[in-house]
Specification:
97 residues, mainly alpha, 5 helices, 0% strand
C-alpha cells in the first residue's frame, strides 16, 4: 500500500458510498480495510477521511477529523446533490457509528 496516497474525488466518493451501502451489515473496520485495499492506501487513512466527513457535516473545525481537504468537500457536495434520499443527518449517523 502507498504510504502517501493522492486522494481523488472518486476515492472520496467511494468512502461515502461504501459506508452507506454496507453500514447495516458489516463491521466498520472491515469496510475501511476493503476500501483501503481498493484504492491503495491504509485503513487509518480511510478512517481519517470518514472523520473528516463527520467534521464537515457537523461544522466541527477542531480536533480529530477537522482537516477536510477540498477534494473531500467536493465529493461530499457531489454525493448530497446526487443522492437526495440520504440527508446530511443520516450521513452523520452512518459515518459516526
Amino acid at each position: 500500500m502507498a504510504a502517501k496516497h493522492k486522494w481523488t474525488k472518486e476515492d472520496c466518493l467511494l468512502v461515502i458510498t461504501e459506508f452507506v451501502k454496507r453500514y447495516k451489515t458489516e463491521d466498520y473496520k472491515s469496510i475501511e480495510k476493503d476500501i483501503a485495499k481498493k484504492i491503495g492506501t491504509t485503513a487509518s487513512s480511510v478512517n481519517l477521511t470518514r472523520a473528516n466527513y463527520i467534521s464537515l457535516l457537523t461544522d466541527n473545525r477542531e480536533g480529530f477529523g477537522s482537516n477536510i481537504s477540498s477534494t473531500q468537500a467536493e465529493a461530499m457536495i457531489h454525493y448530497l446533490d446526487n443522492y437526495k434520499d440520504v440527508t446530511p443527518s443520516k450521513l452523520i449517523y452512518i459515518l459516526s457509528n
